[in-house]
Write a structure and sequence with these properties.
This protein is α+β, with helices and mostly antiparallel strands. It is built from two helices and three strands; from the N terminus they run βαββα. It is elongated and about 45 Å long.
């Protein structure tokens, strides 16, 4: 079994919580042989991935997760900027 733990540390607890919520739906929509769990601890978002498939599946899953995190961060930053207007 292949495993990966991804820790994302944020300066703001609200941002960490929002990012964790944005990527948490992935906890439920995964193919057989793949397990993803995202949790929040203080200002850290932890995603644990377990995969009993090929390493390319694990790498693609990590890539998808990081893309989703990046999208969430950009969206939250845009919303924050627009809120200041």
């Amino acid at each position: 079994m292949l495993e990966a733990d991804i820790f994302l540390q944020y300066e703001d607890k609200k941002l960490a919580k929002a990012v964790a919520k944005a990527v948490s739906p992935d906890n439920f929509k995964v193919p057989k042989g793949l397990w993803i769990k995202t949790s929040l601890k203080d200002k850290t978002v932890l995603t644990r991935i377990k995969c009993d498939k090929k390493i390319t599946t694990l790498i693609a899953t990590i890539d998808d997760l990081l893309f989703s995190v990046s999208t969430a961060e950009k969206t939250l930053e845009t919303a924050k900027t627009l809120n200041k207007l």
